[in-house]
Design goal:
The protein has seven helices and two strands. The protein is mainly alpha-helical.
Amino acid sequence: MNEGQTHGILIGPDTSLVVAEILLTAIDDLLITQCPGLIRGFRHIDDYELSFVTLRDAEDVRATLQGLLAEYGLFLNPRKTKLQELPAPLEDGWSTELRRFAISDKTHPVAQRNDLVSLLNRALEIASEYPTESILRYAVARYKVWMLKLGAWRTFQNCVLGAASADASTLASHSECSIRWAMSVDM
């Protein structure tokens, strides 16, 4: 239906990781050959993080990489591709804030419910400021580490469903952890 081509590498099954590694290893080799002495950094699956001495070097390598990817019908994601002058913070301020967000322990179920709602509320506020970031998915993933009292379970479910209605990718975080969460419920 698309002249035998896809747009990018399918995300999902582990086979897509193998396909990505095969294609991008070949592209890595070509990039190193075509940009001798300029490539310093790493690739993790399909994310590159490279550093350069000059902005011009960074722009040249980005153009070369885009050309190599285009030969395979792949493209750099414009929402995730940026040139950033160093030094830069190691993580976004929103992830630090959400990570430090205190949730009461299971001996205080009412406080725990209120804290869960407050965390999701703050995550929704931040998500509106940074619509291209996976803020809600991150916030839902934070729930993994808490032991939930049965009284907080319904609130937790409502929070996850509320986050999923705003960002469907949060469901992936929830489904990966549902067994762990279910086993963590303290009756």
